[in-house]
Specification:
Blueprint: H1 2-15, E1 23-24, E2 33-35, E3 40-45, E4 51-56, E5 59-64, E6 70-75, E7 81-89, E8 93-109, H2 111-114, H3 127-131, H4 135-142, E9 146-153, E10 155-156, E11 159-160, E12 168-171, H5 173-178, H6 181-194, E13 198-204, H7 216-221, H8 223-234, H9 238-260, H10 264-268, H11 291-297, E14 307-311, H12 324-339, E15 346-349, H13 385-396, E16 400-403, H14 417-432, E17 443-450, E18 453-459, E19 465-467, E20 476-479, E21 486-487, E22 489-493, E23 496-500, E24 509-512, E25 523-525, E26 534-535
Parallel strand pairs: 2-8, 8-13, 8-14, 9-13, 14-15, 15-16
Antiparallel strand pairs: 1-3, 3-6, 4-5, 4-7, 7-8, 9-12, 10-11, 17-18, 18-23, 19-25, 20-21, 20-24, 22-23, 24-26
Amino acid sequence: MNKVFLVLALGLTSTLALPAGVTLAPVFGDHMVLQRGIEVPLWGRAAPGEKVTVKFQTQEKSAVTDLGGDWRIKLEALAAGGPEIMTVRGSNTLTVTDILVGEVWVGAGQSNMQIPTSSFIGNPNNPMVSTRADKNLEALVNAAPYPKVRFFAAAVNNKPVPAAEMKWEPATSETLKISSAQLSAMGVTLSKKLDVPVGLILAAIGGSPSSRWVTPQAVAEDAACQESLTKARATYFPEKEQAAYEVALKKYDADQAAWTQLSEEEKKGKKAPGKPNPPVPPGVGRWSVGDLHEEVLKPLIGYGIKGVFWDQGESGAFIRGIDQFTMMGALFSSWRKEWGQGEFPFVIVQKPSGGGCAFDENDPVNGWASDKFQPLPAAPSGNGTGREEMVRIASMYPKIFMVPTSDLGGGLHPMNKFAYGARAARVIQGAIYGLPGEWNGPTLAESRVEGSSIRLRFQHVGLGLVTRHAESLQGFAIAGADKKFVWAQAIVDGEAVVVTAPSVPSPLYVRYAWDGPIPWANFFNQDGFPALTFRTDRDK
């Protein structure tokens, strides 16, 4: 009996093995940036009951580890500056060097936040990239190092970084190449504008839906998510889905058999068919809810930050019955609750990417990649719900700010990542730090029927509302009670636009830029920002 007890005790000891001395959590280390202006949390591990003392600048804070060996302290608010040294003493002493204090931003989401700079700059081994290389991003790399900018990656090459390999790195030409292109462009631009250190923490995985970044508990506790799930269950017919799955499975088996019979040469040809993907069985997802929250985000939660720079949306939420708008509400509130740092801001990148013309098609930053201005199609026929969803997310949740992107160049992975990052920095400068200058495009504030016309009043007018690339405004559609939309005549009137159409004598509704690609939409403010998609006929 004693032998059994001894074996169990040894097993328990090895499971709860503690470090031989005091340690810091992997997110802390040489070259790190600490957030200025707030209490700064620090934590780590040591033997149970061990006293740990942290000394930084003129502060000295102590804590005693709990029974599990965890310790945590908070430094009082710090001013921007550095480099500094920190010592952490327990039964041993740690020394952390080259620490800066400034602004810390988390870059999160999917591939457009994850892909490194090297994928968008000239590469002799990849002529396709070289001919469409982002020259501004190349200039950013060539001008390195940036002593005030530091990187920390929680995920690399679409995989979580093991704790033992996590580290902060200064922004050199080499580290810039392997770091997120979009996050790098934002961070370097922001650091220059604010003239303070900037720390950039990357937590992004390509192709990831928003549900992978939020815990199951957060979904279960979110009233809007649960309401959506309840509604979805009322219209869920498992028999129909199983029948549809069996049809899809038979097609997959036939396609797979045909693909297997192809020669290797046929499979490698320019027009070779792709290998078929098996259908997903009913009730089975390709991923688990919250898996990336656990594997990538969890080690970062609690680190002092200014906010989150989020680029995700193409993959949606990927939970039956919950749309992206609802899921993002759960994500915003749960991350803020977990971080324990109040209502910090999220800056989200508009989706879909690009699709519209630039204010100036000769602009060296974004004109080279934007869609060229085009005449209006014969009649309004598109669907702008994707663009609208992003505007709703930014307007209906607190402290969420959207980066307008319709004029920055499109595609699944837009090539001009410098323009995307620099635009995000401009939004952050104005919306978060309150620096002067417009940071958004004209946004509908009010719609009022005036006889046979509708007057639209806008926010984010900036230096004034303008028409670009044509003598008159394009992209406004108008309708009466029948909701049959026709192109409208639109005229700028101060901070408003007046729209009419001879064929709609009693107008009620207006839409603007209501489509996926919108190269014909030419409404801007003089600050260079495109007007945001809207419709007044949305059901509440």
